[in-house]
């Protein structure tokens, strides 16, 4: 069985504004993020499929507004923000009461709260009535499915970030066959990077076909 050599250090995404790919599919989200004073009850839920750019935009907004960033998957207990706050994976909080207390505390402090989620507020599935009420009373905006131009630009940036040279046949193959979700593009480029390092060879169309087959088999 073929074994891939793992890199010593995974590529870290910095989530800078310059590295974000603006497009019509995320234009409404960017407009809402620029106007926190217009958010219902000082809250905005930014939602969309995995890899659509929610986390990237959350980090850009947090940096611009001096907001504290919290990971929803680790949110527990009583957290009182001293200013703007941003919660990533807000639909995966293990203790819903912790998210409720956080939103209440932010409202009491008059601080904006940005939440990123794969689901809109109405489908987050929390059983806590007060939390569901707060979420549904928040402004909510979807990052829509990416356009062809956005996916092409994303593929170019992902390859450049890893200093990979993607020959046109391999590039076109990925654009044609990868699911239209940015997360799949990031995964495909990461796998190509590891495969090229493992074999000490340049990326080819055959390598791209191999990566696509492996990803498809894992679905």
Structure explained in plain terms:
The structure is a single chain. The protein is an alpha/beta fold and 219 residues long. The chain has 2 domains: 24-142, P-loop containing nucleotide triphosphate hydrolases (Rossmann fold, 3-Layer(aba) Sandwich); 148-218, Orthogonal Bundle (Helicase, Ruva Protein, domain 3), CATH 1.10.8. Helices cover 46% and strands 10% of the residues. The protein is built from 8 helices and 5 strands, in the order H-E-H-E-E-H-E-H-E-H-H-H-H. Strand 3, helix 3 (96-109) and strand 4 form a beta-alpha-beta unit. The longest helix is centred in the last third of the chain and has 18 residues, at 182-199. The model is unreliable at 1-9 (pLDDT under 50).
**Helical content, roughly?**
40-55%
Tell how many strands the DSSP assignment holds.
5
Per CATH, which architecture of the largest domain?
3-Layer(aba) Sandwich
| CATH classification, class level of the largest domain | Alpha Beta
- Spatial strand arrangement across the major sheet: 2-3-4-1-5
Number of separate helices: 8
> Low-confidence parts, pLDDT < 50 over ≥5 residues?
1-9
Structural class: alpha/beta
Distance between the termini: 20 Å
Named CATH topology of the largest domain: Rossmann fold
The whole-number mean of residue pLDDT values reads 90
Give a short overview.
The chain contains eight helices and five strands; from the N terminus they run αβαββαβαβαααα. With 219 residues, it is α/β, with parallel strands linked by helices. The radius of gyration is 19 Å and the shape is elongated.
């Amino acid at each position: 069985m073929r074994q891939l050599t793992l890199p010593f250090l995974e590529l870290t995404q910095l989530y800078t504004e310059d590295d974000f790919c603006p497009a019509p599919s995320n234009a409404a989200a960017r407009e809402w993020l620029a106007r926190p004073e217009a958010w219902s009850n000082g809250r905005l839920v930014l939602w969309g499929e995995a890899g659509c750019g929610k986390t990237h935009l959350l980090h850009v907004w947090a940096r611009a507004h001096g907001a504290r960033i919290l990971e929803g998957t680790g949110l527990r207990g009583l957290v009182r923000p001293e200013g703007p706050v941003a919660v990533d994976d807000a639909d995966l909080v293990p203790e819903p009461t912790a998210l409720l207390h956080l939103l209440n505390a932010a409202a009491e402090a008059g601080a904006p709260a940005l939440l990123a989620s794969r689901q809109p507020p109405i489908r987050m599935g929390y059983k806590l009535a007060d939390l569901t009420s707060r979420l549904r009373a928040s402004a909510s905006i979807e990052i829509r499915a990416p356009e062809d131009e956005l996916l092409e630009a994303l593929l170019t940036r992902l390859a450049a970030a890893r200093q990979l040279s993607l020959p046109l046949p391999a590039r076109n193959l990925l654009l044609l066959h990868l699911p239209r979700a940015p997360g799949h593009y990031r995964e495909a480029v990461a796998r190509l990077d590891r495969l090229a390092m493992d074999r000490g060879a340049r990326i080819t169309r055959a390598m791209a076909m191999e990566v696509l087959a492996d990803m498809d088999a894992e679905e």
